[in-house]
Amino acid sequence: LGCCTSLEELYMNNCNLRSMHAQIALCQSLTVFEFDGNESMEYPPREVQAKLGVGVLKYFRQILDCPRTNMMLLDGFDLAEVDSAILGYRSCTWLDLSQNNLIKIPSEIRQMQKVELMNLSQNKLGCIPRILTLMPTINDLSLDKNEIEQIEPSIVLLTRLTRLSLSSNRIARVHPSVFKLTSLNFLNLTENKLHKIPGQIELLTDLVSLGLGSNSLEEIPLEMCSLTSLRQLVLFGNKLQDLPAAFSRLTKLEVLTLSQNSLVRFPSLLAESLVALKELWLTHNKIHDLPRQMNCLSNLEQLWLQDNKLTEIPQELGDLTNLKVLTLTGNRIREIPQRVKALKIAQSAVRENGEEYWQDKEFDGYFSDQDTDSLLVAAPNESTDEGLGTLPQARSVRFGVQLP
C-alpha cells in the first residue's frame, strides 16, 4: 500500500487485522482512512487506534519521518507505554512524549544516545526517571505536570543540561544536585510547594530565565541577587512582602513578574537600577504608591498594576514613551495625570463615546461612581511578539497569573 502514492481513501473495516504497518503512512494523498471492526488489532497501540484514521496516519508519519528530521513528536496520543517501535531510532535528537499517560520510561530508551531535547511533560511519572540520567546528551529536559515530589540526586549526571523545566509538580525542596548543573540558563520550578530557595542558587551563574512563581516563598535569598545574567525572573503567586536592596544588582532583567504577592511598595532603588526592564508585573499586591523614579525605566513596554491600593500615580510615568500596556483597574485612583494621558497608548477601536481609555468594566463595576479615567486599561495598538495584539478587540481581560 505504501506504493499507492495517489490513494486518497482507504477502507479496511472488519478485515480481522492483527496489526498495521507504518508504511501505510507513505500514502501521502490519503485523507480518508477507516478500520472499524478489527477488534483483535494489537498495533498500533490502542490509544493511537482510538484517534481513528487521522490519528494513526499522524502517528506513523512521525515515526517514518524520524530518519529524515531526527525528530519524534508523539505528544497527545494518550499512550500508556512507550511504543517499542520508536526505541530503535538511534539518530533521534528531539523526542516529545508529552501529553500522554506514561507511568514509566523503559530502560531501552537509553539506546537513543543522541537525544538532546526530551519532553515528558503532562504524564504520570511521579518521579524523574533515573534512566534519563544515563543519556548524557540531553540538554533540554521538560517534566512539567508529572506529580513529581522530589528531584533525584542523579540528575547531576546530566552535565550538558541548559534547560530544565519541572513546573506544576509537588516539589518541596530543591536538591543540592541541581546547583551543580552549572550550564543551566533556564530553570522553571513554577507551581510547586517550595518554601525556601537555598543560597547555593548563586552557583547557577549562567541563568537567563528563572521561574519560581506560584510557590510559598516568603523571602528572596540575597545569593539569588548575584545572578546578574538573569533576563526573566518569575515570582508571582508567593508570599513576598518586600524586595531586598540587592535586587538592584539584576540590571539585565527584562521581564519581572511579582504579581499575587503581599508587596506594599516598589522600591525607588529598583526603579533606578532595573533600567533594562521591558515588562513589570505588579498586579494583585498591596502597593500604596509608586516612586517618582519609575521614569528611569525608559525601556518599559508593559506595566501591570491592577488590583493594588494605589490612590494616585506619579506624573513621571508620562516619560515612559515606550509603554504599550498600562493597567490600573482595581485601584482607587481619582485622576490620571495629563502627562500619562499624553502617552496615547490606548487607541482602542472599542472605546465608547467620551472615553479616553478602554475599561475593564465587567470586573470593575463596583467602581462605577468614580471618574472613568481611574479605571485605565491601556491595550497595545499594534501586534507584539508577546501575543497581546488582539487586546484592542477584547471586552474583558485579566492578567497577572500566567507566566508572560
Word description of this protein:
The chain is low in regular secondary structure and 404 residues long. The chain is 8% helix and 11% strand. It has a 13-stranded mixed β-sheet. Strands 1-2 form a two-stranded parallel ribbon. Strand 11, helix 3 (268-273) and strand 12 form a beta-alpha-beta unit. The two termini are 47 Å apart.
Secondary-structure blueprint:
Layout (H helix, E strand, L loop, with lengths): L8 E3 L20 E3 L11 H4 L2 H18 L1 E3 L20 E3 L20 E3 L20 E3 L20 E3 L20 E3 L20 E3 L20 E3 L20 E3 L10 H6 L5 E3 L20 E3 L20 E3 L10 H4 L35 E2 L26
Parallel strand pairs: 1-2, 3-4, 4-5, 5-6, 6-7, 7-8, 8-9, 9-10, 10-11, 11-12, 12-13, 13-14
Antiparallel strand pairs: 14-15
Keywords:
single chain; 404 residues; little secondary structure; two-stranded parallel sheet; 4 helices; disordered C terminus
Summarize this, please?
With 404 residues, this protein is largely without helices or strands. Strands 3-4-5-6-7-8-9-10-11-12-13-14-15 form a 13-stranded mixed beta sheet. Strands 1-2 form a two-stranded parallel ribbon.
